[in-house]
Amino acid sequence: MSVLAASWTDSSSLGYPVLFGGVLLGSIIPVVPTGPLLSVAAAVAMTTDRLDIALVLLLATVAAFLGDVVTFAVARFGGPAAVRWVARGQHAGRLAEVQEQFRAHGWQIVVVGRLLPAGRIPVLVAAGALAYPWRRLLPASFGAAALWAVAYALLGVVSGGIFDSPLVATLVATGLVLVVGLVSNLVASRRRKAKQQAAEQETR
């Protein structure tokens, strides 16, 4: 605990509060790119002695978990206006689709939604609308946050292990995250289109 407290107060370790606060804020209000932020922190940890990779993983996991819990609580207890605010920018059809998937798969959707770009908000809104039990949501959400942290930190670790320069490693880590996000979005888009076409053919 003394090491953790010292790292937060040491002027050379200001990356920890930025990482924790950025991931927490981005998990509640998606204005901060949390994935690239974590990958950059991991890359810095691998190329300098400013950050410790284990502490980076711990703080990112806890921040992501707390942000998801807050989002779920708002969706469940905040009323229609709060739900609309949380789900702003989300297509109504997408929310309905995720809600149906949530009924069938429950906690598995929580994990998948955390890992997929733009998948977290619809899942948490669906969980709140269905009054998903806390005893099931909390362990699923924490496990999802841990997997998310490991996945995005790994991109930073790989880039930091290849390049000795913190700047180059940071740029490569950011690029890897953008590529992964782009590919994931393309795959998800194609799957949705395939499902829509199949549904249209069934109704004919």
From TrEMBL:
<feature type="transmembrane region" description="Helical">
    <location>
        <begin position="167"/>
        <end position="188"/>
    </location>
</feature>
<feature type="transmembrane region" description="Helical">
    <location>
        <begin position="137"/>
        <end position="155"/>
    </location>
</feature>
<keyword id="KW-0812">Transmembrane</keyword>
<keyword id="KW-1003">Cell membrane</keyword>
<feature type="domain" description="VTT">
    <location>
        <begin position="36"/>
        <end position="156"/>
    </location>
</feature>
<dbReference type="InterPro" id="IPR032818">
    <property type="entry name" value="DedA-like"/>
</dbReference>
<protein>
    <submittedName>
        <fullName>VTT domain-containing protein</fullName>
    </submittedName>
</protein>
<feature type="transmembrane region" description="Helical">
    <location>
        <begin position="107"/>
        <end position="130"/>
    </location>
</feature>
<dbReference type="InterPro" id="IPR032816">
    <property type="entry name" value="VTT_dom"/>
</dbReference>
<keyword id="KW-1133">Transmembrane helix</keyword>
<comment type="similarity">
    <text>Belongs to the DedA family.</text>
</comment>
<dbReference type="Pfam" id="PF09335">
    <property type="entry name" value="VTT_dom"/>
</dbReference>
<keyword id="KW-0472">Membrane</keyword>
<feature type="transmembrane region" description="Helical">
    <location>
        <begin position="20"/>
        <end position="46"/>
    </location>
</feature>
<feature type="transmembrane region" description="Helical">
    <location>
        <begin position="53"/>
        <end position="75"/>
    </location>
</feature>
